[in-house]
Structures are given as C-alpha cells and as structure tokens.
Design brief:
Length: about 100
C-alpha cells in the first residue's frame, strides 16, 4: 500500500510538471509569434521599397535592414529547434518514467 501511495504521489508530480511545461510551451509560442511578426513586416516593407527602384543609398540601407532582420529570425528559429530537441528528449524521459 505504501509503495502505491509513493508511486501515486510521483505520478501527481510528473503530471503537474508536464502541465507546467505545456503552459510554458504555449507562452513561448505566443511570444515567438509576436517576435516574428515585426521582422516579417519590416522585411516586407523594405522589399516593397526595393521593388520601387529607390536610390542607391537607400537601396543599401534597405538591404542591410532585410539582412539584419533575417539574421534575427534565423537565430530565433534555431533556438526553437534546439528547444524542440530538448522537449523531445524530455518527453521520452517522462514516457520512460510513466511506463515503469
């Protein structure tokens, strides 16, 4: 009976932890969506400016902005991929614990 109570308590903690991770994941997705919205808008706006055949000085500036924003978005996406790998490992870990 004691072993069952201990296992039950551990299961409750595991479920609580999983719920916290899920909430954090939802918040992260919301934040990432917000963080990607601005650079995408900037890139679109500056690309439109380039299409309008702006002068040489402005063209260089527009290209620099597009490249900077692209680098920021790439860094964010790479961070998300790293997080996905960590989360996949964590999910496998939890699954192993729960199936014991």
């Amino acid at each position: 009976m004691n072993e069952l109570a201990v296992a039950n308590e551990q299961l409750k903690k595991d479920i609580e932890l999983k719920e916290k991770v899920e909430q954090s994941r939802k918040e992260l997705l919301s934040n990432v969506s917000h963080e990607l919205k601005t650079p995408i808008s900037l890139i679109g706006g500056y690309a439109e400016g380039l299409k309008l055949n702006i002068n040489k000085d402005d063209k260089d500036f527009y290209c620099d902005v597009i490249m900077d924003e692209t680098k920021k978005m790439n860094k964010l996406v790479l961070s998300l991929l790293d997080l996905a790998q960590v989360e996949a490992g964590y999910e496998a870990f939890l699954q192993a614990i729960l199936t014991k």
